[in-house]
Design brief:
40% strand, Immunoglobulin-like, mainly beta, 5-stranded antiparallel β-sheet, 328 residues, 6-stranded antiparallel β-sheet
């Protein structure tokens, strides 16, 4: 349902830069190297790369298309309504991409592509203050899943001089929109540790289909070609096995602790499966590779999610077969 605020935003005149959000900033002559440079620039400080941008079909507040990168957390105490969020209407799934105070725009977010759980999509964050007045300050973006309280950082605290860029009369920050669970996520922006504003998005689930295979050197890998995959030895519920994970990306994208987590179709419980201090070294044509001993506790479809440096790097869907002598 479209709220009054949504209708007002949709009817308001759009600035000149708005039309450009309908197209991926990584298309055409921008080039893959430059795309990965922008993505990798923030990874070591809390943002991560993306697989690519697709045309957006949903735009939570204005009903218009928009693109770029996103992922993250809000107040652990729970959802806090902003001044334009329809306070007291009891709608727990209300979302918005714009935060205002006294009818002044403060923060606006534009996630890219047909964003879904488990897949990086990216987001532009517009902070409506001149870059010159913000460059000596720090920014941090947190996110919380309203249904479970699961929290994570969209952007670790970093200087705006390193994370942001001047754009007209405001400041633009790219991050990754990579969230492990479907549902409503609330994102809170902090400047110099002080809460500045919040937005919320309803993230749909990704189709639960076993990920395809592709060639990696002499081996067949299951996953996302050019991003991540592993040599699939098959999965049986409750039985441990070793899987060689492979990753492609810039060195700064792949820097940090590796954690493999998993969620089973139809649930929102995230299982911790494996952790390593890093993503390993080059192997089979991949930029990094590391063996991981994994056990899925129940049969069914599982989304295996690789986190690097605390950020979701990508996911692979597999099916765990029942253990011998048990039913599915």
């Amino acid at each position: 349902m479209t709220s009054k605020n949504d209708r007002n935003e949709a009817a308001a005149p759009k600035p000149d830069w708005y039309a450009g959000l309908r197209h991926s900033p990584f298309a055409g002559s921008f080039g893959e190297n430059n795309r990965r440079h922008v993505i990798g620039r923030l990874h070591g400080r809390g943002s991560e790369g993306v697989n690519g941008f697709r045309r957006i079909k949903r735009y939570a507040a204005a009903g218009a298309a928009a693109v770029l990168l996103l992922v993250a957390v809000a107040d652990p105490a729970g959802w806090r309504e902003g001044p334009n969020a329809g306070i007291g209407n009891g709608n727990e799934r209300e979302t918005r991409n714009l935060y205002t105070a006294k009818n002044v725009k403060l923060v606006e977010a534009f996630p890219g592509g047909d964003y879904t759980a488990g897949n990086p999509a990216g987001c532009w964050w517009n902070v409506y203050e001149p870059f010159e007045s913000l460059q000596d300050r720090t920014i941090r973006i947190e996110a919380v899943h309203r249904g479970t309280g699961y929290t994570m950082e969209e952007l670790a605290e970093t200087k705006l001089s390193e994370a942001g860029q001047a754009y007209g009369g405001f400041t633009r920050i790219p991050t990754r929109f990579a969230l492990p669970l479907p549902g409503v996520w609330t994102f809170t922006v902090f400047l110099d540790g002080e809460r500045y504003g919040d937005v919320a998005f309803d993230v749909p689930d990704h189709p639960w289909q076993v990920s395809p295979t592709f060639r990696g050197g002499a081996y067949e890998l299951r996953g996302v070609q050019g991003r991540l995959g592993f040599i699939d030895a098959g999965f049986r519920a409750g039985r441990a096995n070793k899987y060689m994970w492979h990753f492609w990306g810039r060195p700064d994208e792949l820097r940090g602790e590796l954690t493999i987590r998993a969620v089973r179709q139809g649930t929102s419980r995230i299982e911790e499966l494996f952790a390593a201090p890093d993503t390993g070294s080059a192997l089979n044509g991949a930029d990094a590779a590391v063996p991981a001993m994994l056990t899925l506790p129940e049969p069914g479809l599982w989304r295996l999610m690789a986190f690097v440096g605390g950020r979701l790097y990508g996911s692979v869907v597999v099916e765990a077969e029942p253990s011998a002598g048990t039913d599915r």
